[in-house]
Amino acid sequence: MNYYDLPRTLGALKHSSFAGRLAQDFTVKDELRANLICRLETGQALFPGITGYEDTVVPQVVNAILSRHNFILLGLRGQAKTRLARLLTRLLDEWMPFVAGCEIRDHPFRPICKRCREMAAELQDETPIGWVKAEDRYVEKLATPDVTIADMIGDIDPIKAAKTGQAISDELTIHYGLLPRANRGIFAINELPDLAGKVQVSLFNIMQEGDVQVKGYPVRLPLDLMLVFTANPEDYTARGKIITPLKDRIGSEIRTHYPLTVEHGMNITGQEAWSRRQSPVHMEVPQYIRELVEQVAFVAREDKRIDKRSGVSQRLPITVLESVISNAERRALRAKEHEAAPRVLDVYAAMPSITGKLELEYEGELKGGDAVAREIIRVAVAKVFHAHFDGVNLRQVVQWFDLGGTLRVNETVESKALLKQLGRVPELFELTAKLGVGVGGSDALRASAAEFILEGLYAQKRISRNEEQEFTGGERVVREDRIREEPGEEFRRDNPGFRRGRGGGGQRNLN
């Protein structure tokens, strides 16, 4: 219904299509339930933009709403908990009437605050009616240790008492907190464990009896609320905890998770990353680069040097993809090229978007964030390369390097110059068809695909690459890796006489 056609007085509201539901004892949880049932029956999308939760989290949220439960979304950072909570407003009515001017959006037929009761008694059917949209019925609070009960519930307002001339003990001098102001809507608290224990206690009444008691006033406000909480499991031990009586009052605990497949992760990253941007450079992001960026997050989540309690946020591949595109854009702008395509070396250039999002364990701290990130990228390249080139004959390329061929690839080199360098490697450009890049592809795409093949061979340790981005034969790989890196468990098992030297390298124990 058009906003200007909505009833403006209580009398007009009583004779409108809204009267039936308002006359019933229809709470916000009933409203959410009724609209959810309608969407389920018609097959409408419940939470657009939420990918990968269709068979796991969403059914549990649906069950909680159908059960009229307050619920908590429990999961690691970057798992769309807040976004999911905000999308609940899609299940609210488009417009909700309230007594105009009321701070707590009082019910027109059953007002609970003193001001609205007095107004309704005096004006009766001429009581003015205001309207609020569904998205404005969502109130969100980030829990921090300094949040007080007055912030959540309310307190005495001496300034209001002085301005209105009311006695300070009068109910009209209450300054309402966030909970009363969210009346007849959804109230969400993010990072619930960070809320002080005594403030968590103040939520008991609203969750069980449906009312709050403002400090210093013998008044009872029977609020109508849907409560949604979010929390990170790490918070239970790192910063605070959810007190047991409050946990007992939360109807459903719903566990969120990271994408279960690379495809789901790519869909989320593609949806959230700022990849479609205005630029003089036409950007083409190959599918294998998108796979690589997503695989970096998956590899990091499995790496034992990364703190599993902290997790690896889905924001990591989103920001990495944005940085990768920006680096390719920067290269094209400097070279005055009109087309660009990201390369693997652009992923290495995006390391600042990776290292800041990794919480390292002790072993990772010893190795260093940059070193860990580089190894994660290398493993991710190997996985994507294997998926595209498993069983493909790459002997000619490898043999060219083994016979002494060298090739220096720099991430700042323009596409045409790089194509010329890569053209020295036999059969390299024929292999790019496996990546969906044919002879007719742009110079930027062909250079990117060819470079990916070399990086894949390097990741599989079939050829070598030094710190100057120079690819060389595979004969150096094992020797250089043993000099620069700590020997692995398999190497030490096969070489029982090996022990680590003071300089970080390895040496034989000849005794």
pLDDT average, as an integer? 87
Alpha carbon gyration radius = 31 Å
CATH level-4 homologous superfamily of the largest domain: P-loop containing nucleotide triphosphate hydrolases
Number of domains: 2
Q: Give the count of helical stretches.
A: 26
Give the number of DSSP strands.
16
Known CATH architecture of the largest domain: 3-Layer(aba) Sandwich
**Do you know the CATH topology of the largest domain?**
Rossmann fold
- Distance between the ends: 90 Å
| Largest sheet data | 5 strands, parallel
- Categorize the overall geometry: elongated
State the low-pLDDT regions, or none.
Answer: 475-488, 497-511
Report on this structure.
There is one protein chain. With 511 residues, the protein is an alpha/beta fold. The chain folds into two domains: 3-255, Rossmann fold, CATH 3.40.50.300; 262-473. It contains 26 helices and 16 strands. The strands form six sheets. Strands 4-7-8-1-9 form a five-stranded parallel sheet. Strands 12-14-13 form a three-stranded antiparallel sheet. Strands 2-3 form a two-stranded antiparallel sheet. A hairpin with a 5-residue loop joins strand 15 and strand 16. The relative contact order is 0.08.
